[in-house]
Structures are given as structure tokens and as C-alpha cells.
Specification:
Radius of gyration: 25 Å
Largest sheet: 17 strands, antiparallel
Structural class: alpha+beta
Shape: globular
Number of strands: 34
Length: about 575
């Protein structure tokens, strides 16, 4: 099939100026899937999702995912069978790599072969095939894992987020996504293993090559090759279950208190009069800053305090200690003189460590609580939830636990960002299991990684898509006590100079309603249509309904007698 016959993407997806890639539906017997830009997505039998995604990952020695472009592509679709071949070129910095994919489907089987060759010398942490397993269809189900020596072991996809690898030395996996369906995966090439990607707020388990506990990074020379083959086969009895095509949203009686919502002070930027006036129209609960003692932190604190006073909010402070005794006394002295009434909470962190250490918390917490009993003192990480999951503090006093979040640790395409929204509540569930009764702060929440400085600013930040994503993130993080979203200004913020982005406009609409609760809502098709529903003190509800689809959608929504028509790629307020 020529490229021109693929499903045409819209020229402007959700105001991003970045259309979704062209895609085509493929069929292999009872298996259906979506081919898109060198990936297979949503491999299903009827309504049952078997595999979320099969793709190629080239990751350098800092775990940066190398972007790629398809240079050649051929698609042949016949009744109940297909074949795809494509060539991709991966380039960033010193990395230059070429891959060839051969993907075939026939008789309920899909075979995915990757052949890669290095065109430059570089250091890498991973090269090869990765496969994502959907959480909903796999969670808590047994899986028979066959290792490279032919030994079988029955293991399980975990319900709560696992801090360690799930399966190791995998040559084959077999499980039942549904009662009438058995899936078998075979791997050829390097050793494979499986991890729980909810650690990084991804909505999947992942099977991949090059275990991270191996000797990394690996030096790659020009001409080095890698070959991986993955074969998926499903056995189906009876007719696959296919549900009703109608999209419906169900609001049940459960509701939770709206978390505090705050924003991050943009580094090295002072708010001007117009920016302050705009932000005052967006009432927020906390203004987050980071104190690092190798900087002019007293100047930063003075500036942030003045801005917080003008905004009529309070300060949320993450403090990175290197010399605890000395710096703690400096901090206490400055706070006592000028800022004691402005500070809402302090996150205690150790500079250079992934999480707060027990020694630091045991020394800092009692002293700070004795001097500042009204300030909340917390522990956690400035990194991803996985750091806290692997090195938590338990059995000691803390007023909250904190970790950061972004939706594109492993992939940055728009479909992935939508998919990963549903993973966010799992981090709160596990945080509550680690530290029962301790409030959870997710701070900061950003669209792109704060860690990978070589990545450009995400152009979607200034689009309607980020507004939709943020509203749904608030829904999925509803059980947190406090949320911090984005910088106040700049390319990672709520506005550029004095021009608000759509995310500002919709947060303003949300705040103007004066919500006190988030109502639990279920969607039968959340990758296309989802919603945030909030309730105010009078019991009135406000619905922010997001249609991610490129087509108008008719939906049924609890509380509305008539069906609603949602425009394509839109946010509808009811």
C-alpha cells in the first residue's frame, strides 16, 4: 500500500502544529492492530488488548531516547494478513544509527524483526525491540515465563507497582488476557526482561533487552549490528468479545477533596506587574521554589517571598542539603526573621542522593517541627516515583511524601502522553502502601523531563493539548494532597511573557468555579474521550470533557438526558 493511502492525519492536532503520524489498521486473523511510524500499537483480539505497543528504542549513555525519521516504508495489506518493511534513521549528537524492520501478520501471528547497524561511534544503554503490556488486561494475572535454558516458572504481573524487575532472562512468555484467549510471546536475540513502567508513570509493563544491571554503558562502533525477533501468537476459542461502539461516561457517587494546586517559580525570572496581575486571576495554593546552597538562595527566597505576598499565596520549598547542621541553622535563622508566616511546607532532600536519607530526616524533622510547628516537613525525591519506591523511608515521622512526574520518560509521542494519564493514580496507591496515612505531594508535574537538558522545550506546552492533559492529570491524581503544575512563565510555563497559554485559561475556569471535590468518573474509551468532573460547595457540578479523537464523537454522560456531540480534538465544558 503506498504511503498516500494511509489514514491521513489532521494537519494540526489539538493546536500543536504537530499532526498525529499517519496510521493504518492491520489484521492477522483474529488479531488487529494499528501500524504507525515504525510501531505496532493496540494489538487486540476483539475488545481485549493483548499488547499496547511494539517499538524500537535507541537510548544513549544518559538514557535519552534518540529521535528518528522513517526514510523508506512499504505496506502490503491483504485479507487477514499483512507485511510491512521500513527503514529508520536515528540521529542526535554523536549518535547516528539505521534500523530496518520487517513486520508480518498471518494466522493469528505477528512477527516483528529488527535489524540495526551503527553509522557512528557512541555509547549506549539500550538498542533494540521493546514491548509494552497493557496494565488493565495483565494486572494480577499469572504468566508462565520460559528462560533461555528452557525452564518454566509461573510468575505474576503485579497489582501494585513493583520496585524490582518482574521477569528475567525471558525467552518466552505465555498468559491469558481473557478467558477465551491465550497469548504466547517468543524472543530471539539478546536477553530480555520485564519491568513495571508505572514506576515512571507509564501505563504499562515493559519487556526489553539489555537489562539495566548489566555493564552499562556499552561502546558501539561503526558497523556494529543488532538483530532481534519477536513473535506473538494467540489461540482463541469461540468468538472474540466486541462491545458496543457507543462512548459513555459514568459519574458515580464517589468523590474526593480537591488537592491543593500550586505552580513552580520560573528559575532566574522575576514576575513583572502584568504577569502578577494575570496570575492573581488564577488563585493558587502554593508557590514552589528550590533552595540550593551553592547559589544565591537568600536572594531567591526574598524575591519568591515578595511574589508570593503579591499573589496572596504561600511558599512550598524544596531544600537540597549538603552540610546539614550548618545549612539547617542558616535556614532557621533566615526563616525566623522574615518568612515564618509565608512558608507552608518544606521538602527535605540530600543533594546528590536520589531520596531523602534516614539520617537527614531524623535530624532535620524534630528540630524544624520544634521551631516551626505550623510548617509541614516532608521527605521524598526530586526525581521520579521509582526512586521512592526503591529507597523509601518507613517507620519515621514525616508530614508528607513527595515525588515529581512527567509523562514522557520513555517516549514523547502524543498517543503515549494520553495513554500514560491512566498510570498516575497507581503511584499514589503505592505511596500510600509504603507510608500509610502520610499525605502525598506530586511536585512538580511537568510536560517534559526536567532532567534531560539536551531536549528542546516541548512545543505542545503552549497548545490546547496541554490544557486537556492537565485537566485529566488533576482527575487521575485526585487522591494526592497537593499538586504542583509547571512554571509560572516561560516555555515550560502557564504563559509566555504576558500571553497566557490555553492551560492557564482552563485552570482559570476551573478555579473560578471554586470546586471543593473531584467526582469519580469512568469512561469506556478513555484514550479517545475522558473528563474531569468537579463539584462546588453548593453541590453543582462542572464537566471538562476531552475528545482526543480526530473525529466528532457522540457520547452519553450521566446527568444529561440527551447525547452530547463533542467536536474533534476539543475540550467541552458542561
Amino acid at each position: 500500500m503506498p504511503i498516500s493511502q494511509l489514514m491521513n492525519p489532521t494537519p494540526n492536532y489539538f493546536g500543536t502544529n504537530q499532526p498525529l503520524p499517519a496510521s493504518v489498521v492491520l489484521q492477522s486473523g483474529a488479531l488487529s492492530c494499528l501500524y504507525e511510524n515504525g510501531k505496532l500499537r493496540y494489538i487486540k483480539v476483539g475488545d481485549t488488548e493483548i499488547i499496547r505497543t511494539i517499538y524500537i528504542a535507541i537510548r544513549d549513555n544518559s538514557w535519552t531516547t534518540i529521535p528518528y525519521k522513517i526514510t523508506k516504508e512499504s505496506i502490503d495489506v491483504q485479507q487477514d494478513m499483512f507485511s510491512v518493511t521500513c527503514t529508520a534513521l536515528y540521529t542526535m549528537g554523536s549518535v547516528k544509527y539505521k534500523s530496518t524492520l520487517i513486520i508480518t501478520g498471518k494466522n493469528n501471528t505477528i512477527r516483528f524483526t529488527f535489524k540495526g547497524v551503527a553509522l557512528s561511534k557512541f555509547s549506549r544503554n539500550r538498542i533494540g525491540v521493546c514491548l509494552l503490556h497493557p496494565i488493565h488486561e495483565c494486572m494480577a494475572k499469572p504468566c508462565v515465563v520460559t528462560d533461555a535454558e528452557g525452564n518454566n516458572k509461573t510468575l505474576q504481573f503485579p497489582a501494585q507497582i513493583s520496585p524490582t524487575e518482574l521477569f528475567k532472562n525471558v525467552a518466552q512468555m505465555q498468559w491469558q488476557p481473557a478467558e477465551n484467549c491465550t497469548a504466547t510471546l517468543q524472543f530471539e536475540g539478546d536477553p530480555f526482561e520485564t519491568e513495571d513502567q508505572r514506576n515512571w508513570a507509564d501505563n504499562s509493563y515493559k519487556t526489553y533487552n539489555t537489562p539495566p544491571d548489566s555493564s552499562l554503558p556499552v561502546e558501539v562502533n561503526i558497523g556494529d549490528t543488532v538483530t532481534h525477533t519477536l513473535t506473538l501468537k494467540v489461540d482463541v476459542t469461540g468468538k472474540p468479545a466486541i462491545g458496543i461502539n457507543d462512548t459513555h461516561l459514568v459519574v458515580n457517587g464517589n468523590k474526593v477533596k480537591l488537592p491543593r494546586i500550586g505552580y513552580n517559580k520560573t528559575a532566574d525570572k522575576k514576575l513583572n506587574t502584568q504577569q502578577t496581575a494575570l496570575l492573581k486571576q488564577l488563585p493558587f495554593d502554593t508557590y514552589r521554589i528550590e533552595i540550593r546552597f551553592d547559589t544565591d538562595w537568600r536572594k531567591l527566597l526574598k524575591q519568591a517571598a515578595a511574589e508570593a505576598t503579591g499573589l496572596k499565596t504561600c511558599l512550598s520549598i524544596a531544600v537540597f542539603f549538603t552540610d546539614l547542621d550548618l545549612q539547617l541553622q542558616e535556614l532557621i535563622s533566615v526563616f525566623e526573621k522574615s518568612y515564618i508566616n509565608l512558608v507552608e511546607d518544606i521538602l527535605i532532600l540530600d543533594e546528590g542522593r536520589k531520596t531523602t536519607s534516614a539520617e537527614t530526616m531524623n535530624r532535620a524533622y524534630p528540630l524544624l517541627k520544634w521551631i516551626f510547628p505550623g510548617i509541614k516537613i516532608g521527605a521524598g525525591t526530586d526525581g521520579y516515583f521509582t526512586e521512592w519506591n526503591r529507597q523509601p523511608l518507613t517507620g519515621m515521622a514525616m508530614d508528607f511524601v513527595s515525588y515529581s512526574l512527567n509523562p514522557q520518560v520513555h517516549a514523547n509521542d502524543t498517543r503515549t502522553l494520553i495513554e500514560n494519564l491512566q498510570a498516575q493514580p497507581y503511584t499514589i496507591i503505592k505511596a500510600n502502601a509504603i507510608n500509610p496515612g502520610v499525605p502525598v505531594y506530586v511536585s512538580p508535574v511537568t510536560l517534559r523531563s526536567r532532567r534531560v537538558l539536551k531536549l528542546k522545550h516541548d512545543a505542545r506546552q503552549s497548545s490546547l493539548f496541554t490544557a486537556a492533559w492537565t485537566l485529566l492529570s488533576i482527575k487521575y491524581l485526585a487522591n494526592a494532597a497537593s499538586l504542583t503544575y509547571f512554571d509560572t512563565t516561560g516555555k515550560d510555563g502557564l504563559m509566555d511573557k504576558e500571553t497566557p497559554y490555553p492551560v492557564y485559561d482552563y485552570l482559570k475556569k476551573l478555579k473560578a468555579f471554586k470546586p471543593v471535590h473531584i467526582c469519580e468518573l469512568w469512561s469506556n474509551n478513555p484514550l479517545n474521550v475522558d473528563a474531569l468532573v468537579v463539584e462546588n460547595k453548593a453541590g453543582n457540578k462542572l464537566h471538562f470533557i476531552i475528545n482526543f479523537s480526530e473525529q466528532p464523537v457522540e457520547i452519553t454522560l450521566d446527568g444529561f438526558e440527551d447525547k452530547l456531540i463533542l467536536p474533534a480534538t476539543s475540550i467541552t465544558i458542561k
